[in-house]
Specification:
The chain has 474 residues and is an alpha/beta fold. The chain contains 14 helices and 11 strands. It has 3 domains: 137 residues, no CATH class; 97 residues, NAD(P)-binding Rossmann-like Domain (Rossmann fold), CATH 3.40.50; 185 residues, no CATH class.
């Protein structure tokens, strides 16, 4: 029930955005014309721009699930701001890309700026309030699901944060039917009665759904709950008891007559998805290696000769797909054979903000990520992808895996030039266990939620960061 209702809300919101944003574009052109601006309806290629807006909507809706429910109203607003920022970035890149590609002079850049700025406000309001509006329209009255919990109060206590802040999907949680004692003040939901009264309570409260909190390692207990629910026509929602043993989300996998749980969904184990990702890698890497990299090589060599003579490229051993070692290629940004003062094995030392090994133009390259462009050669060779977890030095791999148990799960996919962690602000030097833990969390989020749209979205965000590097870039 929950999954189907959530999918319905996603479909409704997708359709709404596909209607509202193009309609606002048309309306804004009419308003602009009425105030005597230079833009004229018959000069605008409406089909092209409306198609671009619709494509941008689909892109950021696929990149970022439009329905996300966590916490109270203030947190929901923060989520809406993040989603609006992502959406407007993609919309702006698409629209100005159309203008650049077609060399369109009929449409005012100021008009596009006004449309994009006002669309940000629209997206913010739509992401914040549209799911709630649809929920109230479709999941109230006779569509409300009266729900009770069945099990130990301790289990219910762990679930009550979700109960109090659960998605607005028409679930009316009435309370708990328990077999244990309850401590005063520990449980925020009401206690309806003892499990011995289960059948009577279902009838009395007109219950439509029961959430079974535990099995108690007893088939008789489970069968009693299920048989009673069947007789009373109640849905059964079974809480996954394994979740309390793991820090990660469990994913159900059906294979034949059996159901398994896995910690990683791994969309890139699908060979079709692998082909799509490889196609995108080549689509991006081939033009850069052929047209842009030779120009950068000349530019970098000029400054290296001027500031720090030595080889053009720097190669270093990194851990890649399935932990296999490969040589990563970068433009050399440090003085040739200049170690860190008082330290041995300087190659294994992370670059710091005021690193004495980095020459002047090298600092610029590192801040703008120009030193990373030769890695597109690694992409062509199949050792890396454009998007994926950043590869670390082999020495750091050994160190990080001792600090974070799940570290090596990031090797399930090819490493990338950019990734979800990097575009989320986690670039540069790793100075604490918390930083590496957060990077790994984002890497796993990428691995488990991969889509071609996610890769495209991260590439677009990376382009923006190349123009305006974050403070952690050095």
């Amino acid at each position: 029930m929950i999954k189907s209702r959530t999918r319905g809300l996603v479909t409704l919101q997708t359709f709404s955005l596909l209607v509202i944003l193009p309609s606002w574009f048309i309306l804004l052109t009419l308003l602009t014309e009425s105030f005597g601006r230079e833009i004229l309806q018959n000069q605008i290629n409406f089909p092209l721009y409306l198609l671009g807006i619709a494509g941008a909507c689909l892109l950021f809706l696929n990149y970022d699930n439009p329905i996300e429910h966590r916490g109270g109203g203030s947190f929901q607003f923060v989520i809406a701001v993040r989603k609006a920022n992502t959406g407007i970035l993609i919309l702006a890149l698409v629209l100005f890309g159309i203008v650049f590609a077609t060399k369109d002079k009929a449409i005012s850049r100021m008009f596009l700026g006004i449309y994009i700025a006002s669309s940000w406000v629209l997206l913010l309001m739509l992401h914040r309030y549209l799911p709630v509006f649809f929920s109230r329209v479709f999941f109230r009255g006779k569509n409300t699901i009266n729900t009770i919990l069945a099990g130990n109060p301790g289990k219910a206590e762990k679930l009550q944060d979700w109960i109090l802040n659960h998605p607005t999907l028409g679930m009316n949680v009435l309370g708990l039917v328990s077999y244990g004692d309850v401590e005063d003040g520990r449980l925020a939901i009401p206690i309806l009665g003892h499990i011995s009264e289960f059948e009577r309570l279902l009838t009395q409260h007109k219950v439509h759904q029961v959430i079974l909190l535990e099995s108690r390692n007893s088939k008789a207990w489970v069968h009693y709950i299920m048989d009673t629910c069947y007789r009373e026509g109640c849905r059964i929602l079974i809480l996954n008891q394994w979740e309390e043993y793991f820090d990660q989300k469990l994913t159900a996998v059906e294979e034949g007559p059996h159901t398994f749980f896995t910690l990683q969904e791994e969309p890139l184990e699908n060979p079709v998805n692998r082909l799509l990702k490889r196609f995108l890698d080549l689509l991006v890497a081939i033009p850069i290696v052929i047209f842009l990299l030779p120009i950068l090589m000349l530019l970098v060599k000029f400054f290296q000769i001027k500031e720090s003579r030595g080889p053009l490229f720097y190669r270093q051993k990194r851990s890649g797909f399935k932990g296999r070692t490969f040589s990563i290629i970068k433009f050399r940004s440090m003085y040739h054979h200049r170690p860190v003062s008082g330290q041995k094995g300087a190659d294994a030392v992370q670059a710091s903000e005021e690193d004495e090994r980095v020459f002047s133009f090298g600092k610029f390259m590192r801040r703008t990520s120009l030193d990373e462009f030769p890695q597109f050669i690694n992409v062509l060779g199949g050792k890396m992808s454009v998007v994926g977890p950043r590869p670390h030095m082999t020495e750091h791999d050994e160190k990080f895996k001792r600090l974070v148990d799940i570290y090596r799960t990031r090797h399930f996919v090819k490493p990338g030039l950019t990734g979800l962690a990097q575009t989320s602000g986690y670039r540069g030097e790793i100075t604490s266990v918390e930083l590496i833990e957060e990077r790994i969390r984002l890497d796993l989020q990428y691995i488990n939620n991969w889509s071609i749209w996610l890769d495209i979205g991260l590439i677009l965000k990376t382009i923006v960061q190349l123009i305006s590097p974050p403070r952690s870039a050095y």
